[in-house]
Amino acid sequence: MRFIIGLLIAIGLIVLVFVLILKSFGSHNTSPNIPQPLTSYSSTNTQVEMTITGPIVNDQNYQSVQVIVGQSQAQINVLQGYLGTVTTTKSYPNNQTAYLYFLSALENAGYTDGTSNARPNSILGLCPFGEHYQLEVNKGSSTVQNYWADSCNDKAETFKGNINSVIQLFTNQIPEYSQITQNITFVQ
Q1: For FRET with 62, which of 3, 27, 173, 186 sits at 20 to 30 Å CA-CA?
Q2: What are the pLDDT digits (tens) for 122-152?
């Protein structure tokens, strides 16, 4: 009798494991990865980021400008060299309502419109005399979105939204943007 009960339990466990395995494979194939609306991040620690890098030049003259906006602050960093040494940084207070409006405007400008890039190094060397724009959504230490575009309008770009509107929205978050970036040759 114990043998039959043990055998039924063993068969039941095997069937349960088999069903769970099939269900896990099936859920990956049938459930598309639908991104959250950008505005859903307004009450979280999620930050949106735009980095503009200049033309390919020597390390001493290579510059980047990074704008990071979150629920509680907007920050600008001026970076020097290909290793990205921060030479200037300034932060401004922000609030959840302002962040919600900003995220909504970014969404309307197509900030989340893009395609995955299977080859992350494909931007190296593209548009060597122009600017590159890196657009990210960072949730804690993980990157939720990472698209790029450039001023040469390469067909390889992963960002498909309105880059000019996105740049203007980000620069509008930094009250002293023009003064902070006045010595950067590629920033207008």
Answers
A1: 173
A2: 667 788 999 999 999 999 889 999 999 999 8
